[in-house]
Write a structure and sequence with these properties.
heterodimer; A: 318 residues; two-stranded antiparallel ribbon; 1% strand; flat; B: mainly alpha; 13 helices
């Protein structure tokens, strides 16, 4: 320290150490605040739903009328519609999403085409859901209506095709959900397909298996853990998706197994009723938000459990 | 080659090694390949259909009026979405102002300060037990404080909250870090409408008004986990030898963060911020009952209903008037262009880093 003008390396001074303490404390405060935000969010939703929960109790979950003027509320069709639309959407999204992931990873395409295809699928995730809703109303519904009504006329004994598709309905909503969850399923499935050790595929080819025998018997089972994980993650996303459903599902307050009938979901109910809701109705909507949160958390927990189980079964394959 | 093999001893009976397209196994494989290709094509049709429709129907109204005029009333011609564009930029700005410093600070803690230099002291079972009891008690205290709000419970709740703030002393830091990471992941999977419910309870009911601030808070909750998790990832990618060199020069950990880690990790952090902003700009559900909507320009008042592009599309999509539908398409084109520009900027920044 004889040359105070250019000491490049020196031990920290007392002030610097104090500043260090302060900054570290500040960062840990923000880390704790992240936990606090989650806790506050959960608490706010529970607290907001609590009065209606006390008032309507369990009957709220099992009755199916929503009459704001009579203060008579029930969300059974909404719960059913949420699960049904998410299931349909994720089912379709999984079939297509895994197909795309297979195309992207199993040497079907030259490298540049794989990259291009991957970027296109990722772009699907960037489009806001309200734009998908608009597209669904003016493009998708008119496009599928003739097919849907032809199916209805030909197979009206089949419960899924019980009614006509007159406009908004469960099928357009589920198709848009499928488009929206496809990038999630493809991205995670692709990662887990890439992670399958090449020697497993090569061994299968060496034994004389065809390309699809290898995919179905070796690659997919080895990657199944990640694929299931992506499916459950996508299901969680589909449950909470609001705008596309509020615009396309029809908001009928009735549950129907027919995929052409209008339905409703919890998120769509909250989005539609909230702007004109009275004070009492807002309380009931908060209860519905609480139920939505509970279902989402439950699906995520079940998802974690399924992934764990799948990984145990896979123990021998690795 | 196969003929050479067939000339071997007859007892071996080797199978033919040619692939026959008619053999059931090859046929199955080829049919499956074809099917998968067709499915992939079907899967990317919607994207092109959406983009085509946006350009085809949106371009007619995509002119200067769109940026400068107010939304048209029912049955009127012309008009634009200038106020909604301003509202969206304002609310995303508020959300970024909250979530970006918040997320980066928490990420710095997770990536830099949560791993102790030496092994943490092992905690005895009684200490752990005491810590868990304190945590549960503090949770209950906050609950009572917030649910009853009278003097006694306020004191009780405050005291228990203080105890909870002391728990970090007891818990090993990496345990806290994994807790924070878990919380961020739970927030990622949170339905966006619930972030709206949260901001409604927290801001709208407290201030008594729908406002851009409430909308910004809702969007900030949705941006925070993306910013936090990507920033942590980016900070972890900074080579350890750069940190070690700085520490060897006598820098404090804070100086390392400010002069070495954060400047090096900036491109990665920016990519995360871009993605979060892009997502927030397109969000509709959380704004429906926090910012609401308005047909007028923003005034200088801080608390007033604020329009946004996404809510405008939603409102106009169900209107029977063709002009409003056309405006909805033009607004969608504008919104998608904004979102894609942000995404591509993020990708370019990320690409340059590699």
């Amino acid at each position: 320290m004889t040359e105070p003008t250019s000491p490049k390396a020196q031990p920290p001074t007392g002030a610097e150490l104090l500043q260090d303490r302060g900054f570290r404390g500040l960062t840990s405060l923000f880390a704790w605040l992240t936990l606090a935000v989650l806790a506050l969010l959960l608490w706010q939703i529970v607290a907001a739903g609590a009065p209606a929960m006390e008032k309507y109790g369990f009957k709220f979950l099992t009755s199916s009328s929503w009459e704001g003027s009579k203060e008579n509320f029930g969300i059974l069709p909404q719960i059913g519609g949420t699960l049904y639309s998410s299931f349909l959407g994720v089912f379709i999204g999984t079939i297509f999403g895994v197909a795309v992931a297979i195309i992207l990873t199993q040497d079907f395409l030259p490298h540049w085409a794989e990259v291009a295809c991957k970027n296109i699928v990722e772009l699907l995730a960037a489009i806001p859901s309200v734009v998908y809703g608009l597209w669904g109303i003016f493009v998708l519904i008119p496009a599928i209506r003739p097919i849907a009504n032809w199916l209805h006329e030909g197979m009206d004994w089949f419960p899924l095709f019980d009614t006509r598709l007159s406009g908004p309905g469960m099928l357009p909503a589920a198709l848009v959900l499928a488009i929206m969850v496809l990038p999630t399923i493809t991205a995670i499935s692709r990662d887990s397909l890439v992670a399958v050790p090449p020697k497993l595929r090569e061994a299968a080819f060496g034994l004389g298996a065809t390309r699809w025998e290898t995919i179905l018997a070796v690659v997919l089972p080895t990657a199944s853990r990640g694929i299931w994980g992506s499916v459950i993650l996508a299901f969680g996303r589909a449950l909470g998706e609001t705008m596309a459903l509020a615009m396309l599902v029809g908001n009928s307050d009735k549950f129907s197994w027919s995929v052409f009938a209008p339905g409703t979901t919890l998120a769509a109910l909250i989005a539609n009723k909230f702007p004109e809701a009275s004070r009492v109705e807002v309380g009931a909507l908060m209860y519905a938000a609480l139920v939505l949160m509970a279902i989402t958390l439950l699906v995520n927990i079940v998802g974690a459990w399924v992934i764990q189980r799948t990984s145990v079964n896979l123990g021998g394959a690795k | 080659m196969s003929t050479a093999l067939k000339e071997g001893p007859p007892s071996l009976d080797l199978p033919a090694l040619e692939r026959s397209l008619r053999s059931p196994r090859t046929l199955f494989s080829n049919v499956m390949s074809l099917l998968t290709f067709v499915m992939t094509l079907i899967a990317i049709v919607p994207l092109f259909s959406v983009l085509y429709m946006l350009v085809w129907r949106g371009i007619q109204h995509f002119n200067i009026d769109l940026f400068t005029q107010l939304p048209p009333a029912a049955g009127m011609v012309g008009g634009g979405v200038g106020n909604a564009l301003v509202g969206t930029i304002l609310m995303v700005g508020i959300a970024a102002l909250i979530s970006v410093p918040f997320g980066i600070m928490a990420a710095v803690y997770l990536a830099e300060f949560s791993q102790p230099a030496h092994k943490p002291r092992p905690y005895s079972t009684p200490v752990r037990g005491a810590a868990s009891v304190l945590a549960v008690a503090a949770g209950a205290g906050i609950f009572f404080f917030l649910s009853h709000r009278d003097a006694f419970t306020a004191v009780l709740g405050g005291a228990l909250t203080l105890t909870m703030l002391l728990i970090p002393v007891w818990l090993p830091t990496e345990r806290i870090a994994s807790g924070v990471r878990f919380a961020a992941k739970v927030l990622t999977g949170l339905p966006s409408i619930l972030a709206g419910v949260f901001a409604y309870e927290l801001v709208v009911l407290t201030t008594g008004k729908f406002s851009a601030i409430a909308g910004g808070v809702a969007l900030a909750v949705l941006m925070l986990p993306t910013v936090l998790l990507t920033a942590e990832e980016a900070i972890r990618m900074v080579p350890a030898r750069m940190r070690e060199a700085a520490i060897g020069m006598g820098a404090t950990p804070t100086q390392v963060v400010w002069h070495i880690t954060l400047p090096t990790a900036t491109p990665g952090i920016l990519t995360g911020v871009m993605l979060a902003v892009a997502r927030a700009a397109g969000e509709t559900a959380p704004l429906l009952f926090t910012a609401l909507f308005s047909n007028y320009w923003l005034s200088s008042q801080p608390l007033e209903p604020t329009p946004s592009l996404a809510v405008l599309i939603y409102n106009f999509s169900s209107k029977p008037f063709p002009n409003q539908i056309e405006i909805a398409w033009a607004t969608s084109l504008l919104l998608v262009l904004i979102v894609l520009a942000l995404n591509i900027t993020g990708q370019v920044i990320a690409g340059r880093r590699r």
